[in-house]
Amino acid sequence: MTTGWPMRAAAQFAQIRATVSTPPPGADGTISLMGWAGQVSCAAAFPFSSAVRANGWVLLSGQIAFDAAGQPHAGDIGAQTQAVMDRVCRTLEQVGSSIHDVPKVNVWRSDLAEFAAFNAVCAGYFNAGKYPVHSPVQAGLAFDLKAEVEVQALDRQQAGH
Prior knowledge:
The longest helix is centred in the middle third of the chain and has 18 residues. The protein contains 4 helices and 8 strands, in the order αβββββαβαββα. β6, α3 and β7 form a beta-alpha-beta unit. Helices cover 29% and strands 22% of the residues. The chain has one domain: CATH 3.30.1330.40. The N terminus is likely disordered. The chain is of the alpha+beta class. Strands 1, 2, 3, 4, 5, 6, 7 and 8 form an 8-stranded mixed sheet that branches.
């Protein structure tokens, strides 16, 4: 019987896959606004939330790319960036916010040489000339993915927009 890191990674992947395929808020209660300052909890198995609303901000956990089957995305940096940014947009919409409310983006990439390709896709999600500040970091990512994106957005609900 295999134990240790491979088993833990397989179990974590199964939990992440379950999170990705959860229905929209309210469909079965899996995703709901709750907790301090309003959290979006995606899976009880993880010690973190997908998004937290606090002091005028919506803070998202890092988002990674999964394909339609809930598997880690095997595509190139362009395809993975699109999948990640689509997830970011969906998560923000679930809490009543928008990609256009994002002043700060943290990005982890497995290869900074793909900086231009990532930015070419990412730029299409923002209004021209109104790009957020961006902190790129090179790091080894889960499932050998190429990009992870974390954003901070203004909370439209608190701001009364």
